[in-house]
Amino acid sequence: MTDTTPIRRAATQPPLLEYKHVRKAFGAFQAIDDISINIYPGEVVCFIGPSGSGKSTLLRGTNGLDPFDGGEVIFDGLVLPRKPSDVRKVRQRMGMVFQNFELFPHKTALQNVAIGPITVLNTDRATAEKQAMALLAKVGLDDKADNYPVNLSGGQQQRVAIARALAMQPEVLLFDEPTSALDPETIGEVLSVMKALADEGRTMVIVTHEMSFARRVADWVIVFERGKVLEEGPPEQIFEAPTVERTKEFLGHLGWA
Amino acid sequence: MTLDWSVVWQNKWLLAEGALMTIVLTVLTMGFAVPLGIVLAFMRISKWRSLALFSQCFVELFRNIPLILIVYWSFYVIPILVPVQFSAFTTGLIALVLCVSAYNAETFRAGINSVRAGQTNAGLALGMSQFQVMKEIILPQAARRVLPILATTWVSLFKDTSLVSVIAVGELSHVALQIRSQSFRVLEMLTAMAVIYWMMGYPQAKLSDWVRKKFEVKE
């Protein structure tokens, strides 16, 4: 008998992020139905699945912005606390990138990136802005440092938002459909920034509908449906040889397989 | 019918004093009604139900009765409620503050609510506290939306101060109407009043337009 369990390279270390029996309902709708999964250090994990399958809800529960009803999230061996003052400490160590960017419109690109360290870490303004400038350069936007978000394209705004998340030196980056609100021509620039971050060995959890990106960049892919994990595995397995019929159907609808 | 405009010029200092009083009333009213409005708005959105309910009742009461009624009401009711004897000026000021702070409370509340929830989430995700999110993210954005409305309220208030003339506060309307009844120069005094109000009000209205343009929220 041959072992068909797919190899998860990162799994030699303890997980950075553990979801244990998490549940969440919106009224009668069970958005997350007893999910238990692990994210390992240095891994790029993509959450895929049809709309309403619970992948975004799972991501937003990770840093307690939208807390789960039951179960727990364990980050770096620490159970995510419920108390607002305690959960803040954990949130500082997780970066989040939103579908609608959510840059602060009253601040310039540079100020958007610097505000986290200034307010949360008490970094002095000069140091924070110097770091912010370096991060803007990293996402290719140092020439737009003094622009307000309104004067940036969607793709540029999202790159600033990524720099803003990086400014807190997070141990994991959470992306909630980062390219879903973008014009097709600017999706590429955001994905290539994300690819560069993945190549640095950062731990990233990405909710995405960009299947070719997931195929190319992910170390591990988790397929969701109706609040449950349908299948998980390395991208080669999920995209080339899914073991679950529903995964095939879902990918088939998107033009895969 | 002959018109005699000299009555206006003869009473120029009285009128100037009245005009000054109108300005003082406007400035003082706003000076009190802005902080009060902020306090009421925060009470309204606070998680303590009783505070929220008090704020709501206050706002809905004073926003929905005519200002002139609040003025009369203050004049007759305040002496019953408190043992202190207030001057007509103080009474008029209280009436104006009650009314305008109710308006301002709604303005501030709307301003705070107009900032979408995602902005709060973005701040919290960075690790900010609720207080930091309010101070760094929500209030600066709310202020840009609130300022033009406050400017409009200011322009209305400037004209509405005339209503406290009914309890003999010596502002422009009261002074002018007094001169009218003593000199019987009705048309002259009413016209003079209109001209003075307009000359003072027009620049304020223009300034308010400028504020609205300058702080227009672009997203």
Describe the structure.
The complex is a heterodimer of chains A (257) and B (219). Chain A has helices at 55-62, 84-91, 109-120, 125-138, 154-166, 184-199, 211-217, 235-240, 245-253; strands at 17-26, 29-39, 44-48, 70-75, 78-79, 94-97, 172-176, 204-207, 220-225, 228-233. Chain A is α/β, with parallel strands linked by helices. In chain A, the strands form two sheets. In chain A, strands 6-7-8-3-9-10 form a six-stranded mixed β-sheet, with helices on both faces. In chain A, strands 2-1-4-5 form a four-stranded antiparallel β-sheet, with helices on one face. In chain A, a hairpin with a 2-residue loop joins strand 1 (17-26) and strand 2 (29-39). The mean pLDDT of chain A is 93. Chain B is 80% helix and 0% strand. The N and C termini of chain B lie far apart (60 Å).
Key features?
heterodimer; A: 257 residues; alpha/beta; 6-stranded mixed beta sheet; 4-stranded antiparallel beta sheet; 10 strands; globular; B: 219 residues; mainly alpha; 9 helices; 80% helix; elongated
Q: Roughly how many Å is the radius of gyration of chain B? A: 21 Å
Strand content of chain B: under 5%
* Secondary structural class of chain A: alpha/beta
Give the tally of β-strands of chain B: 0
Give the helix tally of chain A.
9
Q: What is the count of β-strands of chain A?
A: 10
Fraction of residues of chain B in helices? over 70%
In terms of quaternary structure, the protein is heterodimer
Structural class of chain B: mainly alpha
Outline of chain B: elongated
Shape descriptor of chain A reads globular
Give the distance, in angstroms, between the N- and C-terminal Cα atoms of chain B.
Answer: 60 Å
- Separation of termini of chain A? 28 Å
Number of helices of chain B: 9
Task: Indicate the radius of gyration of chain A in whole angstroms.
Answer: 18 Å
**Largest sheet geometry of chain B:** none
Order of adjacent strands in the largest pleated sheet of chain A: 6-7-8-3-9-10
Overall mean confidence score, pLDDT of chain B: 92
Low-confidence stretches of chain A: none
Work out the helicity level of chain A.
25-40%
